[in-house]
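Tutorial handout. Part one gives the primary structure; part two gives the three-dimensional structure as tokens.
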Amino acid sequence: MPKASLIDPVQDRFEKRMAFDSHMKRYKQAMQARCYLEALMIGYACLEDRLRYLLFYLGMLQSPASGSIGNRRTTASYKRILDRYMQKGDRSIRHIAGKRNLTRCIFLLVAENKPDQDDVVQTVLCASLSDEGRVSETLDLLKNIEAWCDYRNAAVHDLMNKSVVSLDAHIAEQAELGYKLFRRLDNMVGWVDRKHISRKIGIEISKSRQKNKQGRR
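Part two.
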């Protein structure tokens, strides 16, 4: 059999906006037509996309499409954060669970506000995101997203083994909740984006290197 052709990715911000508008229209149509499984799928995709961008704006990804954490100057710092707050579990940015876990570790660091000594990345993260209300809200939001994803996964991956009566009792509410969680997460992404964390980390690393050079003279 011939290989199934891949779906081309968006090429720029214009195509990204087109994709977003198109899928939001699909979501509304699905809700109106009571096609709740489709609505769940779109909500899940929206959450996964926003989590990836959140990691990007937290400086953990070099670009939204990156397949690995950090870069040669920052990877070790981010891995130390993960080792502190996550001894086991999914760390893959290719999975929504991994993206949630990575994001949670960053905000647990900020909530504790105890960066490793002389760790520029951790210091910038704690200084930039030191809003107790926002940090608490993000950690709570991540818990809610995890619970919603558990429902979505059960409804999609184990559909044939679920009671139709039980499924129908809550699926409309859950499909709507997915959209609400997406909107809350999108708001959080905008807040982090405005902190310009990657730029701050780059500036502080450059300062640190310059200081070390002067110390060796």
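Part three, for discussion. The chain has a mean pLDDT of 92. Helices lie at 13-32, 36-57, 75-85, 96-112, 120-128, 132-157, 164-193, 197-216.
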